[in-house]
Amino acid sequence: MGCLINTVPFCVQVERSMPVLNLLHQVAHASAAMIPHEHCHLSAIQQWTPPGLDAFNLFNTLLVYENAPAIQQSTYDGTIAFTDKHELEFTEYDLAAAIEPVGNRLLLHLSWNAHKLVKEYAICISQSLSQLLTDVHKALLHTSAPTPVHQVLTLPEPEQRMLNAFTANPLAWDESKTVVDLFTACAQRHPDEAAVELDSDVWDYQTLYAKAQRLAQWLLHYGLTAQEPVGIIIARTPDVIVTVLGVSMAGGALILIDPEYPLDRISFIARDCGIRRVCYTAAHAEVVQRVSALVPVAVCEIDTMLATAPKNTASTLGQVLPSHLAYILYTSGSTGRPKGVMIEHRGLSNLIQQTPSIVPHMRSHFRHMQALAMTFDGCIWDIFMTLCHGGTLVLRDEIAHTMHHVDSTSLTPSLMAVLDPT
């Protein structure tokens, strides 16, 4: 029959400095305010959901309070005695926790979908819940000195101590620099070093920077504005890397589009984020023509842009600020419509500047293979991580063959699992 509950979804606003008791009061008041609406069908609530919210995934966390008073033994005539009880419930959720008061303690029961979650993960969740409940209890006992929400631990104390040790000395990074600044400085330091390689085609940093600069000037000459979304029909070629850099240098926001996408998905992305121009290689002219017939976009063939760009490489480029939009990444849309996630330059720059601390092999002349799907978030990291630190971005022809000629690559776990480790 399904889950027979009348819980109504509601949102909770949480601030770091908010006292724990205030948060609990807020949740209690919000929950009580929902009681008059418990007769509403979930389908109706989904229809009332404001634009921008996922109407089909309204519950991030679902708490059901069950009041089951104990039956007094005296109500029986003595012929039957209940000495113990055992309850076993099943839910349709991948993870469910039941908290039962036993005397002055709370007993936590955890059940999970073994096809999706391993036992070790479930144990970690149970330990985190136990720590959370313990800290909330402590906070409620010390009302004279309110405990802010951010001081409530969600990790067991040994793990929290380990985390504190690892994060005790945060790495410094220049918040004023964008990846455009980092790439420009790198190109000036290593003008003659190999920057991009595809088979026998190798471009040095000087060539790559000059082409990207000319493409940026072309875009600015034809009216590109700061943070304007620019669609790029991707291909694993040096020209597309030039376009990624050129759009960034001109101040535009990258939207990488797979030419294998269904036409309606490409059209949706173009309309959703307001793409006004699409850059492409000649190999994908047919795809772009079909898109432009459905969505009013200017089509920009990369070779033509480079051939007709202004010759004055000293021209001033658009100012790119850390707060500006760097790129928009669209989700797969497997649970509904694709959703665009907007990433600012400050976040991307922070990641790129911190990369040497987590990738020990990084140095001048290192060779990194770009093997991920170019619409994947990791592709952006591959490009800028390599080209902002003096490495060579190797565009794969065939993974198994290329692996022997590079120092590193980024792979998804599923792809790594099928590779021969030898």
From TrEMBL:
One of its GO terms (molecular function) is phosphopantetheine binding. The keyword Phosphoprotein applies. One of its GO terms (biological process) is secondary metabolite biosynthetic process. Keywords: Phosphopantetheine, Phosphoprotein. The keyword Phosphoprotein applies. Residues 2-163 form the Condensation domain. This is AMP-dependent synthetase/ligase domain-containing protein. It comes from Dimargaris verticillata.
